[in-house]
Amino acid sequence: MSRSISIVGAGRLGRALARSLRQVGWRIGPVVTRSADHSRAAVHAIGAGKPLATLTSEVVDADVILLATPDDVLAEVARQLAKLAGHKCRGKIVLHGSGALDNKVLQPLARCGAATGSIHPMQTFTKNSQPNLKGVIFAIEGHPRARSAAGAIARALGGVPVPVASGSKPAYHAAGTLVAGHALALTEAAAQLLIKLGFTRAHAVVTLLPLIRQMLDNFEKHGPRAAWTGPASRGDYATLKKHQRALRRYPREFGESYATLVRLSARVLAKNPTATLKQLERALKKSRRKSQ
User: Fold this and answer.
1) Which of 122, 149, 164, 184, CA to CA, is 20 to 30 A from 174?
2) How far apart are CA 262 and CA 266, in angstroms?
3) 145 to 43, 66, 142, 220: CA distances (angstroms)
4) How far is CA 105 from CA 17, 98, 112, 117, in A?
């Protein structure tokens, strides 16, 4: 297949993928963002491409068109591009980068003859970051030609393409968000607890990072159940009650999240989830009664 790609929506994901593709020999065509300044900045960050502040039919001159816009405007962008390009879309491959949406959002382009699909790297992208994509899973779905192109892109970047059923995309994306989004919130919540106890932020970070890294190392080497530690893992409900009482001095989300996560731990990590959850609920119920 030809190695030319247009980028529509050069935010965190679009820039990172385009830059990585350029580094492995892909030609970057038009790079479209919401303003001239943004498109020029994106081209500078990518190291190649033609900056455009407006969607035009020139976008489909590349063999692959990547729509890396926010999910809530993706359908409208697809509609506009189909209206602008029309028959020029025939034979082209159009992919979007959403983790939660499937290729149905690109139906206007499919009706114009494009092979549509999606490609989503299970990785976190922050402003100005260029994460290592080697070994990263890329979820791919859509038309066979689109899946083939998405797979080739993933492999070119050192990733591993994995087909995901179209209807399963939301659950797939939720799995990633539990880790990349919610685990970050948990880590920051723990840091704030330590800071309120008198730790500096630097000391809080130094305290938590080795703990997180060792947990992940244990998870990888020994599996989830063997890696499970803490009072819930050993049935120490008295300590759990103390934790619950201590967290009442903080915003309610701290205590509510703790209780929910203890239940989730029991569900996914305990040898006998049903029995463990029953014991846990009794302990939490007693703790609530004492607080009232």
Assistant:
1) 149
2) 6
3) 28, 14, 8, 35
4) 21, 10, 14, 9
Cβ 28 vs Cβ 18: under 8 Å: yes
Complete DSSP assignment for 79-147: HHHHHHHGGGGTT-EEEE--SS--GGGGHHHHHTT-EEEEEEESS---TT-----TT-EEEEEESHHHH
pTM: 0.90
Rounded distance, CA 203 to CA 195, Å? Answer: 9
Q: Order of strands, edge to edge, in the sheet holding 160-163? A: 50-52, 27-32, 4-8, 64-67, 93-96, 115-121, 137-142, 160-163
Amino acid identity, position 24: V
Residue found by looking up tokens 């959403």 in the block? 98
CA angle (284 as vertex; 280, 286 as ends), nearest 5:
120
Do 259 and 244 meet the contact criterion of CB atoms below 8 Å apart?
yes
Tell me the C-alpha distance between 288 and 281, whole Å.
10
What gap in Å lies between CA 113 and CA 156, rounded to an integer? Answer: 26
Cα distance between the two ends of the chain: 68
- pLDDT in the model for residue 282: 86
What does the mean pLDDT of the chain come to?
94
Biggest distance spanned by C-alpha atoms of the chain: 70
Sign of the four-CA dihedral 39, 40, 46, 47: positive
The pLDDT, as a whole number, for residue 1 is: 47
